[in-house]
Amino acid sequence: MTAISVCLATYNGAAFVAEQLRSILDQLTSDDEIIIVDDGSSDDTLDVVNGFEDARIRVYPNEKNVGVNETFARAVALATKPIIFLSDQDDVWTPGRKAIMLKAFSDPRVLVVAGNYQLIDRDGGMLNRSLAPDLKADESRSRLLNLFRIFQGSQNYYGCAMAFRTSLRAAIFPYPPKMECHDIWIGMIGVTSDAMSHIEAPVLLHRVHGRNASIIRRPILKKLASRVFLSYQLAVAVVRGSNLRRRLLVP
Questions:
Q1: Distance (Å, rounded) from C-alpha 80 to C-alpha 60?
Q2: Domain residue extents for the chain
Q3: Which of 13, 14, 48, 94 lies deepest, with the highest CB count within 10 Å?
Q4: pLDDT tens digit string along 115-173?
Q5: Was domain 4-248 assigned CATH 3.40.50.720?
Q6: The pTM is what?
Q7: Are 19 and 49 in contact (CB under 8 A)?
């Protein structure tokens, strides 16, 4: 089975990170790795992580707080395996996530895999509401539809439910100026490269507890400004995606 790097950004996540790490480690082999970059936690996050004493876990504290996008970028840059899985500190992987997502990469045209998820509360109880419409497998290669949904802000591309080939780093970095968020950017690259695969099964339990880095309520003017910047990002993604397809994908 292909080895994977799990890239996890932590920041004051002591309350939930142990449960998340256990759910991940249960699915990994000795060839896999977890890259944890801590963004200056002031709680016991590093003590909890280091307490696992597992050789597959590699921890890199940031010298200063740089934010979630740059912290994930550092983790991705440090990954050494062919496939990178992104992970938040406060979720729980569903059983079989690794195998389900790796199966999608058996198609050499696929560079990015995005899955659905179920919402849970801070205590692990199931929530019925959803953050975005479910991804459909038969819409994986619907580039215009998926790009429209990204621009609209309704596409269900969350980094915590995504994986991509390490070779994609050549297109992801450097980030474009005023990038909205790293997971949407990766999704745009996958879509514009015609290299996206949607997994309909839930690949994790996404915990909603009021302090998630991926759930941000913004004023309307900031939302409008983000759409302007996103237009630029989409244009950049189209160019990078086109170039990437020529270099990396099987015709």
A1: 14
A2: 4-248
A3: 13
A4: 999 999 989 898 876 556 799 999 999 999 998 888 888 888 999 999 999 999 988 99
A5: no
A6: 0.89
A7: no
